[in-house]
Specification:
Blueprint (H helix, E strand, L loop, with lengths): L4 E10 H8 L4 H8 L2 E3 L11 E8 L13 H16 L9 E8 L1
Antiparallel strand pairs: 1-3, 1-4, 2-3
C-alpha cells in the first residue's frame, strides 16, 4: 500500500457547506447519491478537513504540471452548472467555490 499525492482545482464546498446542502442526510451518503467527490488534503483526513465537489484540473501523482489558466473560468462555470443540475437549486443552495487543494489517496 502506498500513499499517492497530487493536486486538484475543485469546484465545490467545504465540509460545513456540504453538511448544509446534505440536510438531514449524512455527508458521505449525500456524496455517493449525487456523484460528488471527496478530496482529502492529507492521508486519513477527517471528513471536516475535506473538500467536496468536481475537479476541473488535476496533476498526476507526485508531479507538478503546467495548466492553461485562460480555460479555468470556463471550466469552473461548467462545473457549477453541472453541480446545480445534479442537486437542483432549492432554498439551501450554496454557490460553489473554487479550491486549490492537495489530494492524497
Amino acid at each position: 500500500m502506498g500513499i499517492y499525492t497530487s493536486a486538484r482545482i475543485v469546484v465545490g464546498w467545504d465540509y460545513d457547506e456540504a453538511s448544509i446542502l446534505a440536510g438531514e442526510q449524512d455527508v458521505y451518503d449525500w456524496t455517493l447519491e449525487n456523484d460528488i467527490d471527496r478530496y482529502s488534503p492529507y492521508y486519513d483526513a477527517d471528513s471536516d478537513a475535506c473538500v467536496y465537489g468536481i475537479a476541473v484540473e488535476r496533476t498526476a501523482d507526485f508531479s507538478a504540471e503546467v495548466i492553461d489558466l485562460s480555460s479555468l473560468p470556463f471550466k469552473a462555470e461548467q462545473a457549477k452548472k453541472e453541480l446545480k443540475q445534479r442537486l437542483g437549486c432549492d432554498e439551501n443552495w450554496i454557490e460553489p467555490a473554487v479550491f486549490l487543494t492537495p489530494y492524497v489517496s
